[in-house]
Amino acid sequence: MSLEQPVALITGAGRRFGFALAQQLLAEGYLVLAHYNSSKAGIVELEQQGAIGIRADLTDSTAVTNLIDEVQRCTKRLDLLVNNASCFFNNATVDADPAALAAVFQVHVQAPYQLITALTPLLQASGQGSVINITDIYTESPSTDYLAYCAAKAGLANLTQGFAKALAPQVRVNGIQPGPILFLPEHDGEHRQKVLAETPLHVEGGLEPMVQAVRFLRDNPFVTGEFIKVDGGRALMI
């Protein structure tokens, strides 16, 4: 690794947006530290393109500490930290399983807090460190079917603004609030039609608009503590 090569850590890099962002940053010349828990197939592909895969279960604070140690072994600078990893459980699941309830807050609040706090010296060492937290449009208007998830994402949004104040001017901290970017395989046609009908732009966004939002927040030196909705206007309707 060149001392001038930019370095990015992406959590949840093995699939969907994390994977697409990792590919884009690799193409731009970054050293990408690609965190994953179970999505190994995507990580193998990223490693073939030059990424360094690091496995950690973010529901385990000790595993997060080990992830931090591995990042510190890999690099002396960190230009971009993207807290993207997520777990998504409805009320029935977290009500029936205390571990699922704990996981929602550990993945979305505790792990990002640990990562940002411990990796601040590396972010400062880059001279242009930037943190981007992936929250959700429902942080401001929570879904009654996913109360714990929405509360955890709201906690991450609060951390975003808190760290933006605490780490300025050396490190900028912002967030992205995605909407219907990419439906999951289990979303049937009826669900997709309903969501798109409630989205002013009436289309599934795809991953490129999210990557573009990262570029904007990364490259604009006068933006911190802010959130960009990438949702086709859906937040207007919820």
Automatic annotation (TrEMBL):
It is an enzyme of class 1 (oxidoreductase). GO terms for biological process: one-carbon metabolic process. GO terms for molecular function: dihydrofolate reductase activity. InterPro entries: NAD(P)-bd_dom_sf (IPR036291), Sc_DH/Rdtase_CS (IPR020904), SDR_fam (IPR002347). Signal peptide: none annotated. Pfam families: adh_short. Keywords: NADP, One-carbon metabolism, Oxidoreductase. Its EC number is 1.5.1.3, 1.5.1.50. It catalyses: (6S)-5,6,7,8-tetrahydrofolate + NADP(+) = 7,8-dihydrofolate + NADPH + H(+); 7,8-dihydromonapterin + NADPH + H(+) = 5,6,7,8-tetrahydromonapterin + NADP(+). Coiled coil: none annotated. Catalyzes the reduction of dihydromonapterin to tetrahydromonapterin. Also has lower activity with dihydrofolate. Belongs to the short-chain dehydrogenases/reductases (SDR) family. FolM subfamily. PANTHER family: DIHYDROMONAPTERIN REDUCTASE (PTHR43639:SF6), OXIDOREDUCTASE, SHORT-CHAIN DEHYDROGENASE/REDUCTASE FAMILY (AFU_ORTHOLOGUE AFUA_5G02870) (PTHR43639). This is Dihydromonapterin reductase. It comes from Pseudidiomarina sediminum.
